Amino acid sequence: MGEVAVPPTQGAQTQGTQPCERIAFITGKLAEHALRSVLESFAPAAGIDSQVVVLNIAVAALMTAEWAAKRISLPGGVTRAILPGYCSGNLERLREVTGVPFEHGPKDLRELPGLFGAPSRELERYGPHSIEILAEINHVPRLGAAEVLAIARRHRKDGADVIDLGCDPDGPFRGIADLVRRLRDEEFRVSIDSMDPREIVPAVEAGAECVLSVNATNIDALRGLSCELVVVPDAPSSLDGLDGSMEKLTSWGMKFRLDPVIEPIGFGFAQSLGRYLEVRRRYPEAEMLMGTGNLTELTGADTAPINVLLLGFCEELAIRRVLTTEVISWAATCVKEADLARKLVHYAVKERRIPKHLEPGLHLLRDPKVLRHGPEFLESLATRVRDRNFRIFAEDGLIHVISAGLHLSAEDPRELFDQLEVKDASHAFYLGYEMAKARTALTLRKTYTQDEALRWGFLTVEETSHLAREQGRDQGKESDAKRGAPP
Fold first, then answer.
1. Among 81, 187, 313, 447, which has the minimal tally of Cβ within 10 Å of its Cβ?
2. Comparing 14-118 with 132-357, is the CATH topology the same?
3. pLDDT tens-digit series, residues 398-442
4. Class assignment of domain 132-357?
5. So what CATH class is 14-118?
6. CB-based contacts of 140: which residues, under 8 Å, 6+ apart?
7. Interatomic CA distance for residues 123 and 350, integer angstroms
8. pLDDT tens, 277-322?
9. Which 3 state secondary structure label does DSSP give 399?
């Protein structure tokens, strides 16, 4: 039997003076109701004459392009066709058969409206940034060169522009020049974090381009160095000495930028932000730097939103360099967070756009939108499923398990598992794993989709679906059989 003949969701119509585009949406029997419901919610307003084509297969994710090409027939006037996101195979085969271009929709049909949303050409401008990231490697005198290089490579991969070598106060570190040269040999840009001229001078001579930090205590010893100097106040809780250091460096013709020093919460944080504002007021054209570690390392909270706020402050104030580090556990991804944050805040400031719905990589804990099917869909699905496979859903505080003649729901996965009485160990493992993910999604208000990884922003680790693993095992068995290998 070929496709099921289904009348269109919407008849031919026009929107204003423009005709609607007629698009075919291909699905399986179980997803038909949900697909129609989603299309009715947005297709007319989006100018789409939607044609639902239901193929003779229960689960749309199981179809392939080659399988569909033998069975599909499209309504007249269709200009393109949308396949389920999981559909594999060569889409050109479908074009050859129907004369219509095919494309994949999202893996979750609830995301279809986004596929036909407002044109996103404005986001073509998203991605540039104006802030450089200095990623500090702390206590380099205690680390071997190989370890420093490994950390530097990771930081560069995460978006760092400059590797900052943090020295210890009981120096000097005699190996600093060799370490700088090793990094320069791998084309790293390098800065040194030290107040000790006995470390600073050899580091700069070896190729370091920036020194953190300079004030009245060491400025005279650094005269004539061919690098940029970061000027800090003589007393961290004020701007004392900043003007004097600036005057000296200006008279010597040396390059510098200013860092009024941010303070931890409870130790003058608000006043320190005020100092950045004051320095920018006094010196509108001066280059500046902010070290974010006093907030990210010294605040017991997730660091991604802290980085967004601080880099947003920097972007508005034209502070073009930030120094970050990844010492404490909760700050272990600060370089990548800063890299994503600088793009977000640059776009927001330049384009005068609220910084939301732009950077999914920064949604680490909660999803930007929780997708749900709703109770009517779940109840309808439970009456239509005919096989014994378990479908798992997590919505409205409950985990649902649906199979032929079965619809269970509960808050506690253990309660569900006890009712299922699963004997097979591998099946029990799969159900336990999926229901644990479902419970996590409910706890954190995330979207749960069976057989898919929960989304953790840029920390997401993709999973191979149970279906793909089973197909891989079957193909392996077939290959073994062809070679005459024992089963």
1. 187
2. no
3. 999 999 999 999 999 999 999 998 989 999 999 999 999 999 999
4. alpha beta
5. alpha beta
6. 148, 165, 166, 167, 173, 176, 179
7. 12
8. 999 999 999 999 999 999 999 999 999 999 999 999 999 999 999 9
9. strand
